[in-house]
Write a structure and sequence with these properties.
By secondary structure, the chain is an all-alpha fold. The chain has two domains: 322 residues, no CATH class; 277 residues, no CATH class. It is 75% helix and 0% strand. The protein is built from 28 helices and no strands. The protein starts with 12 loop residues before the first helix and ends with a helix. 39% of the residues are buried.
Length: 669
């Protein structure tokens, strides 16, 4: 990691970095003692990993997080904060930042491997030497969620490092940033919140907390490093980073509160337990960070002369020290057992679900029941808010936007919220028929409504273009719509594969039962249903621009083929003589009111048939209308062209026919 202070005659930057790292490790060690996460010699006969493993595991996590933060910071700088080059190519500064990101990613990969070995020893109760046994690694490393997540993060970090070394465009830089964010979120999937109830809230808040903090700290770190070098004017970079930091601060605060809620039984535990006291200390640190960030924005965002570069570097360095303290406290909390008592359920099936069996389903319970899924609820509300903001901006400047598109988008958002937060989201986990209702609604009805809302077209009209070579939000939308990932995503063969063929790969293989067995898998399925459906309907009836639009006859053929394949899938379900969908799951999570699993499965096939056919007919009508309107527009364009050039094209065509007729007459004579 690059040093924050680099003045001639000052203390060595390497010494400053070393002292800072030792200070953070000391804070982490003290926090572990307070929370009860430090080494305590176990009773005789119990497995003992030793102090090296117990202390080394959280320390390695802290250092690994610092490498991940550096990677994310340099990628954010190269893609968003640095001056842009021409033609989508990064500037010289951006290219150097990409190289720094590549180095940081390689360090991240090495540290993640070492952390994985320490975590494996800590979880299995082995010494480090015993955990280094190849047989132990081969047997357990891929079976334990925490070590499996670190293995995946290692692979992604290696890919990021190699990709950064050979990349030179802002598009590739933002792509590697997205991959880095995914890799950074993986270790959070095996946190303590998984066994404490509130699975969805614990998972969502944990990942949000990590990503927002890493983006905030990494961006400030990159800016502070550039301030010490004075290699380009920073005013525009600080202005671009300011809203990112503000959003990150809000997300860190909100997700931190949610994290505390999922790990404490009562507010009183904030004062009566060491875990709670560290949470209070972290809250104090967060408030301090907000105050420092507010003052920094006030002082430097509007007026930033070169003479104030050193002042910014000092203020940013101070903020980074406070951020590092918050990071160390967070690692201590994640490495310690929370005081909340694990929820005990009355059956094994309920323990797998993470909640008690719901009562017998009724229309009121299924349609109007509620169970919070913070990921989909928050994401859907943000999508609705941004869309309404864009419409309001168009209307405020006198432009028009079809109300039908707005209504369609908001209805689609409502369907997503209903599928993920209503009673059906609970019952779908214990009933095949209700799962099929949720699936078909999420994969067919919601995407149709969302696609007809034309969000990309609205963004292109509502967002102002940036000046010069800089890439603002509008330029990123344009880049995405014409990028090679979008060309692949909208390829008809790929879309048909994941939308239709993926149906068989999911439900007629063990993948369905495996995904149903974890909250992460359940989220993945819901996202797959939504995005696969969105891509399919974007290709065949979308209003938004796409790289290579299909001709209307091709859209009809694609839709008819999808209808037939979906219908065959439903017929297979209805003709099955046994439970064919995830019997290893639904036979275990079986509420007392579920008398006949086979009958429920057959009902699921009927629902799959009905809910697939009805939306398809509506889509067919929409495509026919779009085709008709396209022909009308083409006729009007031809008429206007004929008025402008005296119908020159038709005259040329008539002359060509006359010559052909004359030639035929001559040949016949």
């Amino acid at each position: 990691m690059s040093q924050l202070v680099a003045k001639k005659g000052s203390t060595s930057p390497a010494i400053i970095t070393l002292v800072l790292a030792l200070a953070l490790v000391s804070i982490l060690a003290i926090s572990l003692v307070i929370t009860g996460g430090s080494y305590v010699e176990p009773a005789a006969g119990l497995p003992d990993s030793g102090p090296l493993v117990v202390w080394g595991t959280p320390i390695l996590r802290l250092i690994t997080d610092l490498a991940a933060i550096a990677t994310i910071g340099w990628l954010l700088a190269a893609s968003v904060l640095d001056p842009a080059g021409k033609g989508g190519v990064v500037s010289a500064v951006g290219r150097r930042d990409l190289m720094r990101a590549g180095i940081a990613a390689c360090v991240w990969a090495v540290l993640a491997v070492v952390q994985m070995l320490f975590a494996l020893a800590n979880i299995l109760g082995l010494t480090l030497l015993e955990a280094l046994n190849p047989e132990v690694i081969a047997t357990y490393a891929n079976e334990i969620p925490a070590t499996r997540a670190l293995m995946a993060a290692t692979l992604l970090a290696i890919v990021i490092g190699l990709g950064c070394f050979v990349s030179s465009s802002t598009g590739s830089a933002i792509s590697w940033l997205v991959v880095a964010m995914i890799a950074a979120s993986l270790p959070s999937l095996g946190g303590h919140g998984a066994g404490l109830g509130d699975h969805a809230l614990a998972l969502t808040s944990g990942i949000t907390h990590v990503l927002a903090a890493f983006l905030w700290i990494g961006g400030l770190y990159a800016l502070a490093a550039h301030a010490t070098r004075s290699d380009f004017p920073l005013q525009k970079s600080i202005q671009r980073f300011s809203p990112i930091a503000l959003i990150a601060f809000i997300l860190v605060a909100a997700s931190g509160l949610a994290n505390a809620y999922t790990r404490l039984d009562s507010i009183g535990q904030l004062l009566t337990t060491g875990y709670g006291r560290i949470i209070l200390l972290k809250v104090f640190v967060l408030v301090t960070l907000g105050f420092i960030a507010w003052n920094m924005r006030k002082k430097f965002a509007q007026s930033f002369s070169q003479s104030r570069v050193s002042m910014f570097a000092r203020v940013a360095a101070g903020e980074l020290v406070v951020m590092g303290t918050a990071l160390a406290l967070g690692v201590a909390l994640s490495s310690s057992a929370p005081p909340r008592v694990e929820t005990q359920f009355g059956s094994y099936g309920e323990s797998l679900l993470g909640f008690a069996y719901p009562p017998e389903p009724t229309v009121l319970r299924v349609v109007f029941g509620f169970r919070l899924d913070p990921l989909f609820l928050t994401g859907a509300l943000i999508a609705a808010g941004l869309y309404c903001f864009g419409v309001a901006r168009l209307l405020s400047r006198g432009d028009k936007w079809p109300w039908g598109r707005t209504i369609s988008w908001l209805l689609g958002i409502s369907v997503v919220i209903w599928c993920t937060n209503s009673g059906i989201s609970v019952y779908s986990q214990v009933s095949v028929s209700l799962h099929m209702t949720e699936h078909m609604t999420m994969a067919m009805l919601a995407p149709i409504l969302l696609v007809l809302g034309a969000p990309a077209t609205l963004a292109l009209r509502a967002i102002k273009p940036s000046h010069g070579n800089e890439r603002g939000p509008r330029e990123w939308v344009v880049w995405f719509l014409h990028s090679w990932p979008t060309r692949i995503l909208t390829n008809p063969f790929y879309v048909f594969l994941i939308y239709v063929i993926g149906l068989y790969g999911l439900y007629f293989t063990p993948a369905f039962g495996w995904l149903m067995g974890s909250h992460i898998g359940h989220i993945y399925m819901q996202l797959h249903f939504l995005f696969a459906g969105y891509l399919f309907y974007w290709v065949i009836m979308g209003i938004d621009p796409r790289p290579k639009p299909l001709p209307y006859w091709g859209r009809f053929m694609m839709l008819l083929l999808a209808i037939s394949v979906h219908g065959f899938f439903a017929v297979v379900l209805m003709m099955s003589s046994n439970l064919s969908l995830a019997p290893e799951w639904y036979s275990i999570v079986r509420p007392p009111w579920m008398a006949d699993l086979l009958a429920d499965s057959l009902t699921g096939g009927q629902i799959a048939w009905a809910l697939a056919e009805i939306p398809s007919v509506l889509v067919m009508v929409v495509i026919a209308i779009q085709w008709s309107r396209s022909d009308d527009r083409e006729s009007k364009r031809n008429d206007r062209q004929a008025d402008r050039d005296g119908n020159a094209q038709m005259n040329v065509y008539n002359e060509h026919l006359a010559r052909l007729a004359k030639r035929d007459q001559q040949l016949s004579e």
